[in-house]
Give the backbone structure.
Amino acid sequence: MSWQRASAQAAPTAMLGGMKILVKWLLCAAALLGVAYVYSGVQVQSFGSAMIAALVIGLLNTIIRPILVVLTLPVTIVTVGLFLLVVNGLMFWMASGLLGGFHVAGFWAAMLGALIYSVLGLLIDRLVAQLFPE
């Protein structure tokens, strides 16, 4: 009998987790459109392109960024962590190289675009945490 209660409680929790991911993805896509609106070095063709770009940026940050962080650890230590901004810019620039509807003008445009996107991402994380408390 107790397994029925546990599974009944797990279903809403899993549904909320999926909803949380979906809301965060949509907000990150909107943030990417906001970056393109504020800064001319970043261009996004449509909301669909922004959704794909937000997904690719998230995947790159999940898979490739940790490898780059480990490989560049000595430089990151010497620069007191500031080199991580370069790694973020590279992830942003790499995503634009992989996608057609998302374009970044160059390395420095990627650096500034990634910085703006990161600040908006922090705000999104706080908003999502408020909407979906654990």
